[in-house]
Amino acid sequence: GVWFPYINATEALPNSFGLGFNKTARHMLLSGLNGGGKSTVFRAVSFAVLSGQVFGLSAAQQSKFSLYDFFISNMTSKDNPAEKKSLFMVQAESVINNMRKSIDLFDKQGLRSFAVIDEICGGTGELSGAPLGLALAEDIAKTKHHTMLLSSHFYGMGEAEVLTGGLFKNFKIIKETDVAGHLKMTYKLAP
Length: 191
Fold this sequence. Notes:
The protein is α/β, with parallel strands linked by helices. 31% of the residues lie in helices and 21% in strands. The protein has helices spanning 38-55, 87-108, 126-141, 160-163, and strands at 27-31, 70-74, 113-117, 146-152, 168-177, 183-190. Helix 2 packs parallel to helix 3. The two termini are 14 Å apart.
């Protein structure tokens, strides 16, 4: 299981999953409630892959991953009032279009890339955000040398696994309720 090393070791919850390596899925779509741990899972996986590639060790009980030529990350986006661009416009323009162009360029050159987009189109609603996120997932699924971690709150994004023929695998952060009916965050990853 992988964990984020900036969390106290006694509190860290290791999560296990597989992408690639004799599995159909090469990409992850992660859903879950705000505060459920999606960003922390992405940081943990990204840190494990990057530190494993650079230093030969990672914050995981066991890990196996491909070597990557490029790492691309968008963990936060902000609106740009000076240019009269909403958060959605910034994400659609810079994150999605620029990332898509970079990944296409890397793929054509046979270069392997690892990308993370946390909260795709988080600055808009389901009706405009989910179709844009699904279009990106379909494009990324066509690449040969790429791995992407993508998170979203949009229910419609759950279609990514079917639309990509299983190249994107849907995962979620498990939530539970206690005996009083209060929401309890587990921070555990599940398919």
